[in-house]
Write a structure and sequence with these properties.
Blueprint (H helix, E strand, L loop, with lengths): L3 H8 L7 H8 L3 E4 L5 E8 L2 E7 L4 H22 L2 E5 L16 H15 L13 H8 L3 H8 L4
Parallel strand pairs: 1-3
Antiparallel strand pairs: 2-3, 2-4
Length: 155
């Protein structure tokens, strides 16, 4: 089995971080499918292995974050996933057709934190004090809101 953290660190010097390549190199199928707007994506088990599915109608920055979020579930919560879990726009299982009572709000926060750390690695965010949030968000392929949260910026 491939060590996911080794794969991630092999890709961390690229900007934006190539989340699709990371997921592929870990050995997980990743696909994009149209879903209701309130659903961001899901991870599910099929034939003994997992696959990640992301809402193809969402913005590219949202799709990247969702893919990384679902990878976080795979890495940290595999023992809780069972047949999988769906995530709504707020990254909660409520309102999805893949609810999972084992995945609690703490697990969703962990998957969000993982996604932020993978897509916006701390070592790549040094010396950015003079750069604008929109410029950084564009460089890292994330939303301005995600970049603001990651940097602790309020404006």
């Amino acid at each position: 089995m491939v060590d996911p953290m080794t794969v991630i660190t092999e890709h961390w010097d690229s900007t934006p971080v190539p989340i699709e390549a990371i997921i592929r190199d870990i050995g997980l199928p990743l696909s994009y499918e149209p879903m209701d707007d309130n659903i961001s994506g899901y991870i599910e088990r099929q034939n003994g292995s997992y696959r990640i599915v992301v809402n193809s109608t969402h913005a590219p920055t949202r799709r990247r974050f969702t893919a990384a979020h679902e990878l976080g579930h795979y890495i940290y919560h595999r023992d809780l996933l069972g047949e999988g879990v769906g995530d709504n726009r707020a990254y909660r299982t409520e309102g999805t057709d893949r609810p999972n009572v084992n995945i609690r709000p703490i697990h969703e926060r962990q998957a969000n934190s993982f996604a932020a750390n993978v897509l916006m690695p701390r070592h790549r965010l040094t010396d950015v004090a003079g750069e604008s949030t929109p410029a950084l968000a564009a460089r890292f392929g994330v939303s301005q809101a995600a970049m603001k949260i990651r940097l602790g910026r309020t404006v």
